[in-house]
Amino acid sequence: MGIGRLLLRIVVGGVFIGHGLQKLTGAFDGPGLEGTAKMNEKLGMHPPERNALAAALSETLGGAAIVAGVAMPVATAATTAAMATAIRKVHARNGFWNSKGGYEYNATLIAATTALTIDGPGPLSIDALVGKHRWGVFWGLLGLGAGVVASSFAIEAGEDAAQRAEA
After folding, report:
1. Stretch 71-93: mean pLDDT, rounded?
2. Concatenated DSSP letters for 26-54?
3. In terms of residue numbers, what domain contains 83?
C-alpha cells in the first residue's frame, strides 16, 4: 500500500499544484492571478484579488503537502475549501457529471484527500517519518469540515462585500 498511496498522492497533489499554478502564475495555459481575480469578480467573490490569491495558494500549497504527505488534515482542509467553493459557485448548477460541467471531478478530489487523511498518506511520507502513520476518521472529517466551513465563510463574506461595493 505504500507505493499505491504514494502514487495517489503524486497524482492528486500534482493536479492541485497544477491548478494552483494556473491561477497563481498562469502556468499550463492558466489565467494567472489577474484572470482568476476577474473570474472571482464575476462570481461575486470580493475582494476578487484576495480571493484569487487564497484559491491559488490553497491549491498549490495544499497540493504540495499532499505530494509530500505532510500535515494531511491541513492539506485536506485547504484543497477542500477550494473545491467546495468551485462546486458551490460554478459546478453545482450543472449537476453531478463533469461532461455537463458538474462537480464529479471536484467531489472525487475531495474524497481522495479525505481518504488519504483518514487512512494515512502511507509509509513513504513525511507524516510517517515523524510517526504519524494514520490520522483516523476524526482528523479526516475535521479536515473535510474545516474546508467546507472555510469555503462557506469565503463565499458569504465575498457576496456581502460585493453587495456593499454595488451600493
Report:
1. 97
2. -GGG--HHHHHHHHHHHTT-SSHHHHHHH
3. 2-166
Give the phi and the psi of residue 105 in degrees, each rounded to 5: -65, -50
b/e burial code for range 88-126 (CB count within 10 A of at least 16 → b): bbebeeeeeeeeeebbbebbebbebbbebbbbbbbeebe
Q: Which tens digits make up the pLDDT trace of 115-163? A: 999 999 999 999 999 999 999 999 999 999 999 999 999 999 988 887 8
Give the torsion through C-alpha atoms of 19, 37, 25, 62, to 10 deg.
Answer: -40
Tell me how many domains the chain contains. Answer: 1
Q: Is 49 exposed, middle or buried (0-12, 13-18, 19+ CB in 10 A)?
A: middle
